[in-house]
Specification:
The chain is mainly beta. The chain has two helices and 22 strands. The protein binds beta-D-mannopyranose. Beta-D-mannopyranose binds next to strand 7.
Length: 322
């Protein structure tokens, strides 16, 4: 029997391309005994249900990643101890902190990328077969870098990863790049994919942008959900946009939404440790049923879910591009 992804029909009074799950947030800040907040987390289909890697900051506000399991993709059982890694393709598995994980199944295993503390943030890579035993690989890039997001299959024979070169602080800039690797160890052929928008064109994405969930292959190319940031007089505001990248040359942007597709607008997105943040890190989809379920961190405090029809998100992206 096919596994159902989380879903709720669009409310009749909603005119937007995405809508929020009525019972958001699905994971609260104190979901495990040590946590101060659980947000910016990643999930995938696994065995009969789902598995995930969760960002749980503890009450000392140390950032780490934890494995979790779910039958329905909504109710999660998150392990109380962080993931520990064995040496994968390297002995060098130092890590000062781990945050903002992404997870994807490629070929025979689940690959995890995250923002890894190694003399500042860079992109850590690991893998698991069972979400019990984890192996850490070489960092993909030099510091500083964030938002490493793998494509779910090789492109022209190589692994491909989006990323966002950054600084060591609350980076005031940031564009999306792509890099390729023959072996998940050595990364190169770095190309710019997409830059911030001009303020007057699309202000919500004028300060920095970064890839979110694993890109989804559609008949219009790769659907890339991303976060975009505006720098306001009260600080950064993070919203969500959508872009379509060329299937074989994903550094070519075909379309990109001028309006955001979801912006912080309800209490759990506007109030929290970092107000006004929606930060997508994962999506489940069902092509036949035309369903998309996006997991996002809200206000750097909780995990929430939003839904959309895949075909409508694609046509919205085409029709609202700039
Ligand atoms: C980014 C990252 C994210 C966070 C966001 C908003 O730089 O640290 O984890 O959600 O800022 O605070």
């Amino acid at each position: 029997m096919k596994k159902a992804i989380p879903w709720q029909e669009k409310p009749s009074n909603c005119n937007d391309v995405l809508w929020r799950y009525a019972k958001n947030p699905i994971i609260n800040r104190y979901a495990i005994p040590s946590s101060n907040s659980v947000f910016n987390s990643a999930v995938v289909p696994f065995q009969e249900g789902f598995a995930g890697v969760f960002r749980c900051d503890n009450k000392a506000v140390q950032m780490n990643i934890f494995a979790g399991f779910s039958d329905n993709g909504i109710d999660w059982d998150i392990k109380h101890n962080p993931i520990t890694f064995k040496a994968g393709n390297t002995q060098m598995i130092a890590s000062d902190y781990k945050y903002d994980p992404r997870v994807v199944f490629i070929e025979d295993r689940y690959w995890i990328t995250w923002c890894n503390g190694y003399h500042g943030p860079t992109i850590g890579i690991g893998y698991t077969f069972d979400f019990k035993e984890f192996f850490q690989c070489e960092n993909a890039f030099l510091p500083f870098n964030r938002n490493g997001v793998l494509f779910p299959k090789k492109i022209n024979g190589k692994y491909a990863m989006l990323c966002r070169p950054s600084d060591n602080g609350h980076t005031p800039f940031g564009d999306i790049y792509i890099s390729y690797s023959p072996d998940m160890k050595f990364w190169g052929e770095h190309r710019c994919v997409m830059k911030v928008a001009k303020f007057e064109d699309s202000a919500w994405q004028s300060a920095k942008i970064g890839a979110g969930p694993i890109p989804i292959l559609t008949n219009e190319g790769w659907l890339m959900i991303y976060h975009g940031v505006i720098n306001t007089c009260n600080g950064f505001r993070y919203a969500m946009g959508a872009a379509l990248l060329d299937e074989n040359e994903p550094d070519k942007v075909k379309f990109r939404t001028q309006p955001y597709v979801l912006g912080p607008a309800v209490a759990y997105e506007q109030i929290g440790d970092v107000p006004n943040v929606v930060f997508p890190c994962a999506a489940l989809h069902d092509i036949e049923e035309d369903k998309l379920a996006i997991y996002y961190g809200a206000a750097d405090t909780v995990v929430a879910l939003a839904f959309g029809k895949l075909s409508e998100v694609v046509s919205f992206t085409k029709n609202n591009s700039f």
